[in-house]
Write a structure and sequence with these properties.
Shape of chain B: globular
Number of strands of chain B: 2
Order of helices and strands of chain A: EHHEHHEHHEHHEHHHEHHEHEHH
CATH class of the largest domain in chain A: Alpha Beta
CATH class of the largest domain in chain B: Mainly Alpha
Strand order of the largest sheet of chain B: 1-2
Radius of gyration of chain A: 19 Å
Largest sheet of chain B: 2 strands, antiparallel
CATH superfamily of the largest domain in chain B: Alpha-helical ferredoxin
Strand order of the largest sheet of chain A: 2-1-3-4
Strand content of chain B: under 5%
Largest interface: A-B, 62 and 64 residues
Distance between the termini of chain B: 21 Å
Number of domains of chain A: 2
Number of helices of chain A: 16
Oligomer: heterodimer
Helix content of chain A: 40-55%
Distance between the termini of chain A: 31 Å
Strand content of chain A: 5-15%
Structural class of chain B: mainly alpha
Helix content of chain B: 40-55%
Shape of chain A: globular
Number of domains of chain B: 2
CATH topology of the largest domain in chain A: Rossmann fold
Chain lengths: 297, 161
């Protein structure tokens, strides 16, 4: 099993701990990763809104690099997977858009062919053969109550992100993170508004306070269910909850904060990696107390 | 796709989004009822956006900075009983707004950084930070190639870089 690792920007630059955890987890589970000179995806929350054609061309270039190497693209971020999956689908389906994009790429010797797929680390880990290996390699359980936050762009719009798995109402409700975490002894816990926005894009583009108002609301539903930690698969969602709780507590003097994990950090801990190895030391809301209580150091 | 008329560049929304798609809307407001941005900010909301596009045209919308109060979460489209591709409409409207100079300051700074560096983020002492986690330096992005692709596809009509 071999993928072109598409890191994006936020993870390798802001949260390299997620990258370190992911690389170690993939190695342990038999997933080979290849690095390439990718650029920004670019985000569905910024470039796409400002200039669709530039967004599509830059996304196409990233897909082309993977095509040229002959590997499917593995992303670690809800935004990246959204952009690359949609661009891949659009360019496979529309000849006119493909022609236009290839014209912009030709002087750099790239040409979109439509020969690879785009996937996300959660979907890769959820494959039967990987899950079997995880069960075999697991050295400890992580018995905590975790709320899974998927991030909007990971699964919406469903017709683009999961066209093969649509419900009768043409929708898609993600469950893979909950299922995967239950394999490593986590107690996945439901909460109200689980599938709604974390607040990040609104804050990043226009109004920081409005973005955090959404986060605060979401956190209140999470606290209601006595959830001990959050698991995310997107660096923007992570920042919104991790840094967000620090910012919000300055204003409201809220008591208890909930640590946030990137999915592969939790999987890494279950595989026996240390707190340092999965990069938890740089989180703003510390998980130490929680992990001490279940003897993980 | 864009026509130069003096200094004004005209972006034809209905060339990028089929107007007929909106005719199925019966203004039930299920989209607006689930919009997270509307709960915390004075956003237009999807229902009103569609109504304005159907009625008076979109000029009023694309000139208003409230157009940008959106999470791009796509819940509106997901919950629409008529399955109107609302998120595509919102992209077309904002592309048009950006071309007319209506673009939030934070967003235009982010795009400029992306166009100049090929990445949407920058930090000091990146190599040290990565090596703290046992990671090799990040492979460099071919910045000139990225800039040329962005220029060729017309981004410089919206943002100078």
């Amino acid at each position: 099993m071999k993928y072109a690792l598409y890191l994006g920007c936020a993870i390798p630059i802001k949260y390299p701990g997620f990258e370190a955890a992911t690389r170690q987890v993939c190695e342990r589970l038999g997933i080979e990763l290849v690095d390439m000179a990718f650029s920004c995806c670019p985000p569905p929350t910024s470039m796409k809104l400002v200039h669709y054609d530039s967004w599509l061309a830059l996304a196409a270039r990233n897909i082309c690099l993977a095509e040229e190497a002959g590997h499917d693209l593995l992303t670690l971020c809800s935004g990246c997977v959204n952009t690359l999956k949609e661009a891949n689908q659009v360019l496979k389906q529309s000849e006119s858009k493909r022609r236009k994009v290839n014209k912009a790429l030709e002087e750099h010797n790239h040409s979109f062919q439509g020969t690879v797929e785009v996937t996300h680390i959660l979907d890769v880990l959820y494959q039967d053969v990987v899950v079997e290996r995880l069960i075999k390699e697991k050295v400890r359980d992580i018995p905590i109550r975790v709320g899974c936050h998927y991030g909007c762009h990971y699964f919406r719009p469903p017709k683009v992100m999961y066209p093969e798995e649509l419900s009768d109402s043409e929708s898609y409700v993600p469950v893979k993170m909950d299922h995967l975490l239950s394999i490593i002894g986590v107690e996945p816990t439901e909460f109200s508004r689980k599938f709604l926005c974390c607040g990040s894009p609104l804050g990043a583009n226009v109004d920081q306070d409005a973005g955090y108002a959404i986060t605060r609301q979401k956190l209140s539903y999470i606290q209601e269910r006595n959830i001990q930690a959050l698991s995310v698969i997107c660096p923007s969602c992570f920042e919104q909850f991790d840094l967000g709780q620090i910012v919000l507590s300055r204003k409201t003097k809220d008591g208890e904060k909930i640590p946030t994990f990137f999915l592969t950090q939790l999987v890494g801990l279950a595989l026996g990696l240390s707190v340092r190895e999965v990069g938890l030391d740089v989180h703003r809301v510390k998980a130490k107390k929680l992990l001490d209580s279940i003897n993980i150091i | 796709m864009q026509e130069e008329r003096g200094i004004m560049t005209v972006f034809k929304i209905w060339k990028h989004f089929k107007r007929e798609e909106l005719y199925e809307c019966y203004q039930c407001a299920r989209c607006t009822g689930s919009c997270p941005a509307m709960e915390v900010a004075p956003a237009f909301g999807p229902r009103e956006t569609i109504l304005k596009c159907l009625g008076l045209g979109y000029d009023q919308l694309v000139e208003d900075e409230k157009l940008w109060l959106c999470c791009t979460c796509n819940v509106c489209e997901d919950r629409c009983p008529q399955k109107i591709p609302i998120s595509d409409l919102l992209v077309a409207l904002r592309n048009s707004a950006a071309l007319r100079g209506n673009i939030p300051g934070r967003l235009s700074i982010a795009i400029e950084l992306l166009a100049k560096t090929g990445r949407s983020m920058i930090v000091h002492q990146l190599d040290e930070m990565r090596s703290h986690h046992g990671l090799a330096p990040l492979p460099p992005v071919p910045v000139d190639e990225i800039r040329q692709i962005l220029k060729k596809t017309g981004l410089d009509a919206v943002i100078e870089f």
